[in-house]
User: Fold Adenine DNA glycosylase from Flavobacterium cheongpyeongense.
Amino acid sequence: MDFHNTLINWYLQNKRDLPWRNTVNPYHIWLSEIMLQQTRVAQGMPYFLSFTQEFPTVRDLANADEEKVLKLWQGLGYYSRARNLHKTAQYVANDLNGLFPTTYNDLLKLKGVGEYTAAAIASFSYNEAVSVVDGNVFRVLSRYFDIESDIALPATKKEFTALAQELMPKDNPAIFNQAIMEFGAIQCVPKNPDCSLCVFNGSCLALKKKKVAVLPVKLKKLKVTNRFFNYLVLEDAEGKTLIQKRTSKGIWHNLYEFPLLETDKIEGFDFVFKAVQEGILSSQTIIAFEEYPEATIIHKLSHQHLHIQFWKIKVNDVLVNGLNFNDLKLFPFPIAIYNFIEKEEISR
Assistant:
């Protein structure tokens, strides 16, 4: 078919040189695919290189301490990916003797591996004829064939998967999957693609009908929750501070943070001081209390907007389990808190 021939020829001439494309090692391909979920290649590349250097094999990753894995992942976001990565590495190393499953259906059984990731590993490592469908593929196919189905619906995923499967040359599924994803990533981009240079500009229906800007269709809107975090940056008589691990399920699970006062809205000095004095620090003598005004931020996650304020609190007593501020960077933190620590360390 002209579509896949044109696409593959474009790919061979324009593909980026990425380390996970120069191997069929399922461990490296799995690592890259997990890291690139919700993450741009430019952002994910340093993490991939760090992980493969620190953990050359799946057994090395399996034997690592979770905190070390989270620390290396710090800043990449969606930390459940890192926790699932670690657990899956342990399962592969200990239960599967270090060998990844070799089929799409068996790969789906791994924790944190969905249909897209399983298809990517199966086709790239084992050349199984199974199509990958991600945001890039939705965009390319919806524009080329003028498909207005809502990509937020499960039925649409099946529709696009079937279409991609039909278009795929069964003798070389890996290169087709790589090509269509790469085409969506660097040519058929979400906004203002340069259609004048596109190899499909003579056959793309969206271009002919002037619908490039409105495809693909995604009607479901993500509900965003606002949360209000007040972080208490303590300093005791020895200059030490306190941190704690987030053990509850939800965002930033098993990462570290300063003691937290979560409120229903942005609160000012009087409210926070009273709440801290009567609650979290009721047994301490507070000798200074002030906000870090320049550190107030809004940290946007996919489903939550976190309104974060930091409060500087000096206490007269010695904190149990207190840490030197310079030692904090050894622990895995959410990037919003880590950035604050870096700035505060410079100003000290």
User: Anything to note?
Assistant: The longest strand covers residues 304-315. The chain has a mean pLDDT of 92. The radius of gyration is 24 Å.
